[in-house]
Amino acid sequence: MAAPFTAEQQRRFDEEMEKILARFPEDRKRAAVLPALHLVQDMLGWIPEEAMVEVARKCETTPEQVREVATFYVMYFLEPKGKHVIDVCTNISCSLRGAEKLLAHLQEKLGVELGETTADGLFTLREFECMGACGNAPVLQVDSRFHMDMTLEKADRLIESLRAQAAEKK
After folding, report:
1. Continuous H helices in the chain
2. pLDDT digit string (tens) for 102-125?
3. 140-142 and 145-147: which strand pairing?
4. Residues 53 and 29 in one domain
5. DSSP characters for 70-89?
6. Confidence band, pLDDT 50/70/90 cuts, at residue 49
7. Domain housing 137
8. Where does a domain end: 49, 72, 95?
9. What average pLDDT does the structure give for the chain?
10. What is the CATH number of the domain that holds 48?
11. Sequence-distant (≥ 6) Cβ neighbours of residue 159 within 8 angstroms
12. Model-level pTM?
């Protein structure tokens, strides 16, 4: 199995894990799995299997138990994701106000299916169960920022704005 980190990343991972583990009782290292997974994702942008093995080693648990945690939460990415993650709420309030139409529009505009990343690596599109902003439905979230009362036109402007920002940074 290949190492998940470069030498520099491994040094940083080890240092940060030392700080994380210091917050937990010596016999409860397993409780550090969540912050350890956040650390890996912050470093790599996603959580490969090899990194789960490293987390398990540091947290004195099994890779299987780490994987169980990583697959339970939607905030962890088990494969590379786009620079921007677009989550579209499809719960009842959003659905009644056009979330499915918005989702289909975004799939067509981006050329991806749910869970996929655009060929340029800029966007990952996902469906989300509830964002708790029912009064402003339909709602989508881009990189933890809510966009409420979404229309197809607003979605188009948002995508074009993000594409323009990415082009400026090149």
Report:
1. 7-21, 33-44, 49-59, 63-72, 92-96, 99-110, 152-169
2. 999 999 999 999 999 999 999 999
3. antiparallel
4. yes
5. HHH-TT--SS---SEEEEEE
6. very high
7. 84-169
8. 72
9. 94
10. 1.10.10.1590
11. 106, 109, 110, 123
12. 0.78
